[in-house]
Amino acid sequence: MKKLFLPILLSLVYFQTFAQKSDGTAKSLAKADVAFSAYALKNGLHAAYQEFAANDAIVFRPNAINVRKYTAGNADIKGFSRAVNYTRMSRSGDWGVTTGSYQVDSDPKTYGHFVSVWRGAEGDWKLVIDMDAQANKPLQKVEAKIVDPKDKFSPKFASAKELKTSREIIYTTEKTLNTTLKTYGAHAFSGFLNEDSRLLFPGTDPIVGKEHIQAFHNRMVDKISLKTLMADKALGGELAYSYGVATIDYKTDLRESFNYLYIWERQSDFSWNIMLQIYTLAER
Questions:
Q1: Where do the H-state alpha helices sit in the chain?
Q2: H or E element: which one contains 83?
Q3: Residues 193-196: contacts with CB within 8 Å, 24+ apart?
Q4: How confident is the model at residue 122 (pLDDT cuts 50, 70, 90)?
Q5: Alpha carbons within 13 A on the beta-carbon side of 230
């Protein structure tokens, strides 16, 4: 009986994790990401997308593609798993974000970072955006952080026009950022970053903190140009995301194109700063 206890316990833990629902807490979102990873490791990444992603979800492989189209037309990825180390949920509970590291047990093994946006609807968490960036094997284990909103708020009535107007502030903010980047180069990011902002860039360890991100830009980047493709804001009004294509000119006279995903946070003065950004190489 003792030999059977551990497998039964592990199966029970897996089932409980997989069955995790949205209960209005960031912890439930973190558990949903853990369940996604466990499902992918057991059944393949495509099966995990089929089970956890919304029908309109976008994945970057490497360019933006609808998840159903991607899983129908590409080879599956086996041996995929990931570890979430930061979870944040909107005060309205309609969406949240997870980020961390992933690995693929291929030969050789591959590693990287990921950022996922999740939609909370009808008691479930559904993946709506997933982007990753290949990097080296993590040198240090990052302590997981789960951040619940300070309060809860969701407008009960909002017209399509009001929602569109609400999202326009993100497009306008990113347009301002892009104009400033063209004028001042990567230094312009300093006015648009949280102090504890995170940058996930291909081939690097996570860069945490405004000062460290600026040091990276000063060392590597000459100019950045952004082409915004999509932006949306949580109903609670304090979190938003945008994604698009970034053209980066390095100081080594090299130019590359990236897909990017930014997570924005509203500040006390109602301006918007980037709390999380990830880039992955784009295909032209």
A1: 2-18, 26-43, 45-52, 67-73, 160-184, 210-220
A2: strand 80-89
A3: 193/273, 193/274, 194/265, 194/273, 194/274, 194/275, 196/275
A4: confident
A5: 10
Give the total residue count for the chain. 284
Tell me how far apart the 2 most distant CA atoms of the chain are, in Å: 70
Backbone angles phi, psi at 252, to 5 degrees: -95, 20
Q: Write 47-52 long-range contacts (CB < 8 A, 24+).
A: 47/76, 48/80, 49/127, 49/130, 52/125, 52/126, 52/127
The burial of 78, by beta-carbon neighbours within 10 Å (0-12 exposed, 13-18 middle, 19 or more buried), is given as middle
| Structural tokens at position 1 | 């009986």
pLDDT at residue 7 is higher than 90: no
The answer on pLDDT for 13 being more than 90 is no
Q: At what angle do helices 26-43 and 2-18 cross, to 10 degrees?
A: 120
| H-type alpha helices, 197-262 | 210-220
Pairing of strands 145-147, 80-89: parallel
Radius of gyration of the chain (CA): 19
